[in-house]
Design the sequence.
């Protein structure tokens, strides 16, 4: 559920009068082309597991992508925090761009659904933090609300420099005042412009440009469930944090209910044996794993809070743990 910007495949957040993003949960509007794509995807999905995104096929691109693996998976230390899991200060990107949300120490629940220890994301674009911490966050082009429990957004920004910041707020849009550092990005042009390429003669600089573009690249159209910060089979160091994403549904902690919403459940398998289970009933969208070196399989599910039934086909992911880091 991209809401508040250009939706993947034509999905857009529901709008309130005056073109503002709606504060209440519900399914986003779906254009005719996107609706056909979703119908075809649903027919193709059946009951099989969702496939993970592969590592880049090219040797240069794969090597470049894996340069940043630890940056994407190193656990944070703050007990409560929010951040953009795919963007960093100083990135150069094309627009529209994917903006992935990460929250630690709090759960996600759609707007209008009061529950202690939960809230939803807001993106501040080219605007400072609110001066009145007790006031509701306004609805505007510079204050984007993601009140359906979204885990990411699609932003369409004009070329030039922009600032972005995540701000987490409660069911009534009053800030918890858990916010990310402000990051600066440069929008180089439209997504239709030629993508950066890696030059082996100047690998470091061209890898950085390619990676920044790749990390912000939109997902294909349709409902999906998966990891936001890892590709299938990507070697990792333990301990590591996994960021979860879902499109077509919102996250809602158990204890509340909202249309087209659920929560994440993660099984970690060694061979056929489940060695860890993380049932994120509190609306969390990430999990930290500590695993010995070895080959693991992840099974990520997105389930209804009341019945526990799967809302999407499970997502399967190969996870080789190859090193350990003392934290």
Sequence:
């Amino acid at each position: 559920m991209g809401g508040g910007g250009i939706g993947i495949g034509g999905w857009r957040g529901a709008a309130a009068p005056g073109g503002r993003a709606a504060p209440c949960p519900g399914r986003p509007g779906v254009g005719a082309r996107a609706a056909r794509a979703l119908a075809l995807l649903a027919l193709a999905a059946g009951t099989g597991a969702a496939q993970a995104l592969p590592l880049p096929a090219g040797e240069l691109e794969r090597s470049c992508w894996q340069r940043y693996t630890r940056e994407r998976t190193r656990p944070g230390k703050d007990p409560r925090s929010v951040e953009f899991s795919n963007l960093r200060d100083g990135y150069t990107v094309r627009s529209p761009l994917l903006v992935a949300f990460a929250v630690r120490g709090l759960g996600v629940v759609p707007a209008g659904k009061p529950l202690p220890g939960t809230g939803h994301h807001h993106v501040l674009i080219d605007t400072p933090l609110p001066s009145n911490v007790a006031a509701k966050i306004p609805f505007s082009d510079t204050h984007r609300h993601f009140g359906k429990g979204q885990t990411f957004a699609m932003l369409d920004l004009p070329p030039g420099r922009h600032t972005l910041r995540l701000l987490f707020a409660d069911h009534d849009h009053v800030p918890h005042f858990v916010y990310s550092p402000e990051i600066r990005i440069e929008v180089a042009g439209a997504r239709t412009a030629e993508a950066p390429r890696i030059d082996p003669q100047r690998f470091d600089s061209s890898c950085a440009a390619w990676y920044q573009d790749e990390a912000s690249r939109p997902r294909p159209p349709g409902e999906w469930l998966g990891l936001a910060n890892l590709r299938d089979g990507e070697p990792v160091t333990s301990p590591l944090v996994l960021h979860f994403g879902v499109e077509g549904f919102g996250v809602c902690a158990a204890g509340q209910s909202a249309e087209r919403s659920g929560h994440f459940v993660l099984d970690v398998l060694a061979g056929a044996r489940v060695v860890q289970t993380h049932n994120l009933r509190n609306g969390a969208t990430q999990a930290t794993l500590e695993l010995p070196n070895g080959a693991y399989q992840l099974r990520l599910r997105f389930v209804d809070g009341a019945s526990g039934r799967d809302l999407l086909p499970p997502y399967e992911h190969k996870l080789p743990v190859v090193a350990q880091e003392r934290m």
Summary: The longest strand covers residues 160-169. Residues 148 and 280 are 18 Å apart (CA to CA). Residues 1-47 have pLDDT under 50 and may be disordered.
